[in-house]
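Lab notebook, page 48
Experiment: co-folding of the full assembly
Goal: obtain a model of how the components sit together before planning crosslinking
Operator: M.T.
Materials (sequences as entered):
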Amino acid sequence: MDRYRVIFWPDGKEAVVEEDAIILEAGNVAGVHINNLCGGEGVCGQCKVRITKGIVEKSTKSVSLLSREEIQQGYVLACQTSVRDNLEVEIPVEARLEGEQILTEGETLMFSIPEEIEKPPQEEGGVSFYSPLTTKMHLKLPFPTLEDNLSDLERIYREIQRKVKISDPEIELHKIRGLARTLRKNEMSVTVTLGRKNNNFKIIQIEGGDTSKRNFGIALDIGTTTVVAQLVDMNSKEILGTKASHNRQSRYGEDVISRIIYACNRNGMEPLNKAVIGNIGDLVKSLAREKRVDLDEITAVMAAGNTTMTHLLLGLEPCFIRTEPYIPTATSFPVMKASDVWIPAHPDGFFGVLPCVSSYVGGDVTAGVLASGMGDSSKISMLMDLGTNGEIVVGNNEWLVCCSASVGPAFEGGGLKCGMRATQGAIQRVSISNDHVNYSTIGNVKPYGICGSGVIDVMSELFKNKWIQPDGKFNAEKANSRVRETVEGQEFIIARAGESEGGKDVVITEYDIGNLIKSKGAVYAAATVLTKSVGIDFQSIDRVFVAGGFGNYLNIEKAIMIGLLPDLSLERFQFIGNSSLSGARMALMSNHAFEKAQEIAKRMTYFELSVNQDFMNEFIAALFLPHTNQNLFPSLRGLI
Amino acid sequence: MDRYRVIFWPDGKEAVVEEDAIILEAGNVAGVHINNLCGGEGVCGQCKVRITKGIVEKSTKSVSLLSREEIQQGYVLACQTSVRDNLEVEIPVEARLEGEQILTEGETLMFSIPEEIEKPPQEEGGVSFYSPLTTKMHLKLPFPTLEDNLSDLERIYREIQRKVKISDPEIELHKIRGLARTLRKNEMSVTVTLGRKNNNFKIIQIEGGDTSKRNFGIALDIGTTTVVAQLVDMNSKEILGTKASHNRQSRYGEDVISRIIYACNRNGMEPLNKAVIGNIGDLVKSLAREKRVDLDEITAVMAAGNTTMTHLLLGLEPCFIRTEPYIPTATSFPVMKASDVWIPAHPDGFFGVLPCVSSYVGGDVTAGVLASGMGDSSKISMLMDLGTNGEIVVGNNEWLVCCSASVGPAFEGGGLKCGMRATQGAIQRVSISNDHVNYSTIGNVKPYGICGSGVIDVMSELFKNKWIQPDGKFNAEKANSRVRETVEGQEFIIARAGESEGGKDVVITEYDIGNLIKSKGAVYAAATVLTKSVGIDFQSIDRVFVAGGFGNYLNIEKAIMIGLLPDLSLERFQFIGNSSLSGARMALMSNHAFEKAQEIAKRMTYFELSVNQDFMNEFIAALFLPHTNQNLFPSLRGLI
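Observation: model returned without errors.
Model output:
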């Protein structure tokens, strides 16, 4: 079979693939990533690429999702186009995941992880109370004699116990088969991978020789919208790389409810499960390839996600999450094997999932509480995790309460006319002065759309400059060339077509602003009801941790100005980015942290808001900028 | 396809089978058992049956293993003959396992199991420290509400913990899949099967409704010669049935050494492993069928066997057991699943194996120490387990020492001219007075051969009556019609052809007696060296437990007379039959006993005799009746 070279631009990375390979696969081989919402089914049109050299056949599907103009310019769908020539392919900004700035705590973590976890006190031999989920240990066994005639397996146990004080670890039968020869072929030198489940240890594998330097783990954040994977060196604790992709389940519904409905239809579970497993598989394989790690060297995986995402990942029925009284199948999960869920790693590698609290407060929130350290402090803190759902946690080392409200996708850049995720080309900061709009984009490139943090900025600036009124309507007096009337209502032009990457105006519409007011109102109302439920007010809260997929930036002051965050002094706030991923990584790297997560999940008391009349009242009161009760925002008094 | 009826005589049991079914299989279906040493390969000739009605085709193999006379009488090999007609089949005594008296402690146990294990103090809910390996628990869960919105799995945990004080049990992912529907289909009524591994519990299955009354277990004794299975009701602790068969591995070698050699040849492991798994499978299926137990209702299996048998059962390399310094792959074994080794039971049912001590002291001996209770007593006891290997244990609740000596198959009826296992038709008791021989057979039928206990009797009677001399040679003065000269030397006729089932004399030859002297000498020498090694003599031993496959009878006095057992007063001896099976059953029925077995195995100190010069000296000194040093047998002074 003929082989062809495909060069991808602007990176110049290349792949040599067999005839009829799909361009999308060639991209995988080359290590460049092409947006692919529908999992390669040719229905989302996200993977448009332009052929700049070489000849391809255009598929019918490819053609139907492209404009005549695009076809003339050489655009095709990467998932529908086979390689039958040496090609050069340009990946346009909207199809690139490469430069994506999805929040990964490695890049953005601004708060400190408790020192004990980051730098655990090492006992001799390296397995301490703070040891990671898996540890490799090189053993040089003494050769057996008539006097020292312990069996092979007990000889291994004895040597482990000479290094660390543990009782006999568990082991599966198939690991013992062939052990006699492995030992004798390697002159009694072996490396044992020990997995830890609470206080029990298990031998995951026994390799000949010394492989102890090669032990890797994966932390996963399984978001409704985005899946993030992080490759970690289990010995040095170094983060080797982080990759993210759009959750392929999106084609079955944008929010958890529509996915539950899909999953609970006949045969609906399998495609949803396969979609997210496919996401994870591609991310892990791509990280491993780039960092030259064998998949078998990945011996531990830890995932955090909301309750529905966790159910779909594990293949658990999510059906009763949706209907009163909202019961998930499980909120705590056994430590599994990577192969139980088809994650590409050592098949017997440990796979852990952070525990959930209830149907609408998941392992991502447990991870956030863990990562923020709020469960360890005697002072009261609040965690606000703002994704498609907004979860609020309030508490300290004695008590924790939590609730969840449907927020909509606006803060993740979804559901807005020009919204986009926090990736390259997204407007993330906006300021307006003297009718002049200043903005900056992720990657400092031409703007393509606007992400969550940009949306908060633009709203607060519009409000501050009185372009919009407290009810979110445009101010007729301010009408000028930046505000225009369309068939769908008024909209404000942030970046003009001439400045933008896509050649179109980047705008925010009155309808967008209405949606954003509902989103911020839901968050504020939830936080209000939750604090009231424990008899405190916002002033009693010492620290507020804000987490979410806003990008790597959030202007707290502007978020207060639109009434999203309570009006507290700025130094009480801390933006902690993707705390779901940081929490997962902490549990991966420290059994102590994993146990703490289990304790946190059990300790959190869940308040169900869906049937709460107070919440409805508070929500309605919050549908104003910043709020119908301006006394709640004293610092804005001069402004309003 | 046509179906035919096959009636088996003398039982009259019948089976309807499809055309071309093998007669051996038809026997399985009918629930009658036909001896089948070679696993149905047509090479051992053990499964001769006589067709008394109907027509069969005689296979070439069938014919080559039968005499012309047998062929004329209608004999065929059951394993080589297809059913193509309605048949009546007579199973001759030598091909029948049905009436086999292989020792099973249910029938022969004469000593008491510690009461705590037999009648454990029940905590509320039935899971006590003395609980069996698996327990079924019916749970009626409260329906979830908005106030009581625990997940399905945590709801089950809570209900279990209301009954018994345990932490959250382990569970495998696939058990949780579908749980939501199981609960709601059964109106929140489920039965949980809890398996116990030391202090950890695991949920083996969750069934809809109340199935708690149906929970069964299997105890297994995997002997080199014989495999015994026992079906137990895990609730009532009642033994429902016991079945035994010849270990099909015998075709690859009669003793452990020849089987190790076979297993360590290319591809040698698989047939040996399959052979014993086949044994177990047939026994379990047959017990289940007879007692109307579904295989899925068998949730626990516990096996005991010598170290080599345990390795071959689990598929572990036994290769280094055979060569100095004699190292097994493992002596302790994880609790596995029945499906890990293809035992027909609930696929996730717990499968435990009693721990071994060393290459030549196995789980059967651990079981014997457990069953005898000698490890609990402050007084010193000795266990003598006399099979193809003889294992001796001496000790008390503070120390235990053990050793093993190759004894040969004589005490199991093997390797003798007319030897047979302790099954129907075997001469088991013999007395000689005034040149007259009295004997009795198992099943009180015509004698077909002689088993271990009969052999000990006849030797001691010949010695007492001076038919043989202390060196085992026949006394020329006593020569008469019962002693005759053959080309192979002299032999003594125990039963004449006219009285016997096979129509041949049942004899014991001078060569047989020579072999038996070596066997008894090895046992006595091993016991001597072991007691000396701890600085005591036989008189310090309070109790002697004798275990082994002698049949359900052993005359201690006569065993002392030939110098097999030390010369202690008779009340110190206790014959405990198949203590390997009783120990396995105890560990199956009591986690406390299983833990105790693990403690016993770790506590036993092994003495290697193969390189011990003392042992060689003692062995040579013991090659006399009763011993070269007659002072060791003061009670026989009058006789000798």
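Interpretation: Chain B touches chain A through 49 residues (CB under 8 Å).
Next step: discuss with group before ordering constructs.
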